[in-house]
Amino acid sequence: MTERIMKSKLIVISLGGSLIFPPEGIDWKFLKKFKELILKFVKNNHRFVIISGGGNICRQYQNAVLKIGVVDKEDRDWIGIHSTRLNGHLLRTIFRKHAHPRINKNPYQKFDFREKILIGAGWKPGFSTDLDAVILAKEYGAKTLINLSNIDYVYTKDPRKFADAKKIKETTWNDFRKIVGNKWDPGLKAPFDPVASKMAEELKMEVVIMNGKKLKNFENYLVGKKFQGTVINPHTKNAI
């Protein structure tokens, strides 16, 4: 699994907005450490496609319009999209010396980028950044996608509500999709977007979900060491 990523030299990351913009504001300390880790691999000629999520700034805007009485899903979706683009501009600025000058806002528009890093963000209503990440991984030929979020593992149930929730170290797309369902809405809180999950399953893509806050754990994964996280593998026979 990891060996395949390292040989490919192209690593696709869906960076959860909760890591960029948690409730307390932009986490510049995390971003600084994240930059240092990514550049460590850039120096070894690895390349990255990083798609930014919206995070708490997205939810603040969406909640504001709901309180005012605007309930149109497409409008709320556009607010979320622009939130991811703002975060994307932040990432592109952070990686300025190594990143393509443009942010990819349409995953089907394949950039012929020669830089080490390409930043992506939201596209249009109905498409989450997880789905954008799956499409970009497909366009660039990556069979594995890393989803960095604020959870260590995916669980069978919400562990905050159910004491019998069990963490999942490895599972199939079929079993994972039973947990997340089939529909996506703006602001949906799920380990990985249900629509993106369906496409990843069709593409026989592997997705690894882990806590992005734990950057040493992320590095362990990249170099082939033992790591904490959930692997959704189309070839797994014994799920959950």
Structure description:
- This protein is α/β, with parallel strands linked by helices and 240 residues long.
- It has a single domain (2-232), classed as Acetylglutamate kinase-like (Carbamate kinase, 3-Layer(aba) Sandwich), CATH 3.40.1160.10.
- It is 40% helix and 15% strand.
- The protein contains nine helices and nine strands.
- The strands form two sheets. The chain has a seven-stranded mixed β-sheet with strand order 3-2-1-4-8-9-7, with helices on both faces.
- The two termini are 18 Å apart.
- The model has no long low-confidence stretch (mean pLDDT 89).
Radius of gyration: 17 Å
| Neighbour order of strands in the largest sheet | 3-2-1-4-8-9-7
What's the CATH architecture?
3-Layer(aba) Sandwich
Secondary structure class reads alpha/beta
Percent of residues in helices comes to 40-55%
CATH top level?
Alpha Beta
Reading the helices and strands in chain order gives: HEHHEHHEHEEEEHHEHE
Q: Any idea what the shape is?
A: globular
